[in-house]
Amino acid sequence: MAVLWDLSFASRKPLVAAIDGHALGGGLEIGMCCHARISTPNAQLGLPELHLGIIPGFGGTQRLPRLVGLAKSLEMMLVRCNSPLYSREEALDLGLVDAIVSPNQLLDTTWERKRPWNIASLHRIDKIESLDEAKEILKLARAQALTIAPNLYHPLAYIDVVEEGIVFGPRAGLIKEYETFEVLVRSDTCKALLHIFFAQRGTMKVPGVTDLGLVPRHVKKVAILGANLQCRVNKGKLSREKFEKAISLLKGTLDYESFRDVDMVIEVSAAIFSVLEILLFF
Q1: Of 29, 163, 164, 177, catalytic
Q2: Burial of 207 by CB count in 10 Å (0-12 exposed, 13-18 middle, 19+ buried)?
Q3: CB within 8 A of 37, min separation 6: which ones?
Q4: Which of 36, 35, 68, 38 has the alpha carbon at shortest distance from 47?
Q5: pLDDT, greater one: 105 or 179
Q6: Can 182 be counted among the known catalytic residues?
Q7: Among 41, 45, 40, 43, which residue's Cα sits nearest to residue 30?
Q8: What pairs with residue 46 in β-bridges?
Q9: Which among 21, 108, 159, 260 is most buried, taking Cβ atoms within 10 Å?
Q10: Pairing between strand 44-46 and 99-100?
């Protein structure tokens, strides 16, 4: 499939991708096939494949390093695989997009940007490090992958595919990408991570609640019983700056009288519930 995309986008016709909203996975890979990418401020781009136990399968393993550089592409895929979305500013700085315009200017700007580029994204080399540097970067990336996910194979497989394209050329990389993707997509790891992915999103849909169109209550005042923010600071779980900001929003009290007009009460102990029920409902 990636080879077919390459043949299509290697034509002499100038192609510009207009991106509005989310361009994830294959959507971003199609955009990377184009000679240029124009996005709106609402656009978010990312390649979440490693989070799902696979690798990009539409040529992303070869085009991403050539658009943003090998070192940056490996950082994007390996370090940020659990948070793969990139804002418009990040995408512009990285080179994933060439310009950011308002939605009503998107199509006009896209038409204006089309011109006969000489080099397709697959064959760019201006951001690729030298072969010796690339081999060192790939070596460090493998060590990092083993540290981040010592029991997972697909991050290392991704690095192998990238290396194939760096050493033997992008078309060799595309072939290895296809072969590797076909193996990974059938793996138990992929099936398990996909199950987790859909299960997590399933928790956001509660029958009888989320399907009724209920409007969330606007919370203005919350009571917290026994909050120990200082303890969190001592353990290093809360920065001093955030601690000071949280403290500035709090008002201490030694009785329950001020609880009468709160929208929510947070307390880890069930022993206090009977007292609050009497105060709030009677």
Answers
A1: 29
A2: exposed
A3: 16, 17, 19, 31, 96, 97, 98
A4: 68
A5: 179
A6: no
A7: 45
A8: 24
A9: 159
A10: unpaired
List the alpha helices (DSSP H) in 18-115.
Answer: 26-33, 60-68, 70-74, 88-94, 106-113
Q: What is the mean pLDDT of the chain?
A: 83
Q: Locate tokens 């192609």: which residue? A: 15
Report the alpha-carbon distance of residue 56 to residue 68 in Å, rounded. Answer: 16
pLDDT in tens, 69-94: 999 999 889 876 666 677 777 888 88
Band of pLDDT at residue 172, cut at 50, 70 and 90: very high
DSSP-based three-state secondary structure for 249: coil
List b or e across 33-46, with b for residues whose CB sees 16 or more CB atoms inside 10 angstroms: bbbbbbbbeebbbb
Burial 240-261 (b: 16+ CB within 10 A, else e): eeeeeeeeeeeeeeeebeebee
Count of other CB atoms within 10 angstroms of residue 188: 8
Q: In this structure, what are the phi and psi dihedrals at residue 119, rounded to the nearest 5 degrees? A: -125, 125
Residue 112 catalytic? no
Work out the average pLDDT over 248-267: 82
If one compares 43 and 225, the residue with the highest pLDDT of the two is 43
- CA dist 30 and 33 (Å) reads 5
Sign of the alpha-carbon torsion through 250, 252, 258, 260: positive
Which one from 49, 163, 164, 177 is the annotated catalytic residue?
A: 49
CA distances from 108 to 5, 97, 210, 227 (A): 25, 16, 39, 54
Q: Tokens standing for 105? A: 């200017």
Using a cut of 0.90, tell me whether the model's pTM lies above it: no
